[in-house]
């Protein structure tokens, strides 16, 4: 009887170990799949910024101020489920230097700056979304 119980518990332990391994494997695979799908960007538009609130902590674009060098492309990626834009200037005062148009979820947009300076930009759909690129 004791032998039966110890064999049974050994089987249970083996099953638990196998389950634990398969669960770990799955989560690893999921992470890799997601990483492949999402374009890596310099600046991201995080989730839930289509409603006001992100401006309080200045996280409508992350980072809200991005420092780069001349001639190096800056890439924005929309990580939100809503449309956003990257448009030069300020809300209702665009400067027409660059404009991504409406970016779909997970779409990216790049701009290469040839002159140093501070470039303010905003989202045409959400007036509270502001960011800037500092080109050195
Ligand atoms: Cu937006």
From TrEMBL:
Binds 1 copper ion per subunit. Residues 56-136 form the Blue (type 1) copper domain. It is found in: Periplasm. GO terms for cellular component: periplasmic space. Its cofactor is Cu cation. Keywords: Copper, Electron transport, Metal-binding, Periplasm, Transport. GO terms for molecular function: copper ion binding; electron transfer activity. It comes from the Archaea. The keyword Oxidoreductase does not apply. InterPro entries: Amicyanin/Pseudoazurin (IPR002386), BlueCu_1 (IPR000923), Cupredoxin (IPR008972), ET_Amicyanin (IPR052721). Cu cation binds at residues 84, 123, 126. SUPFAM superfamilies: Cupredoxins (SSF49503). This is Copper binding protein, plastocyanin/azurin family. It comes from Nitrosopumilus adriaticus.
């Amino acid at each position: 009887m004791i032998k039966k119980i110890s064999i049974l518990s050994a089987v249970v332990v083996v099953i638990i170990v196998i389950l634990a391994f398969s669960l770990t494997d799955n989560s690893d695979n999921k992470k890799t799949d997601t990483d492949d799908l999402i374009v890596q960007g310099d600046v991201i538009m995080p989730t839930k910024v289509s409603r006001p609130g992100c401006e309080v902590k200045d996280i409508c674009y992350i980072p809200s101020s991005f420092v780069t060098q001349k001639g190096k492309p800056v890439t924005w990626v929309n990580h939100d489920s809503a449309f956003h834009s990257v448009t030069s200037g300020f809300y209702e005062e665009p400067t027409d230097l660059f404009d991504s148009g409406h970016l779909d979820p997970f779409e990216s947009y790049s701009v290469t700056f040839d002159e140093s300076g501070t470039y303010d930009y905003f989202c045409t759909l959400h007036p509270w979304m502001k960011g800037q690129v500092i080109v050195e």
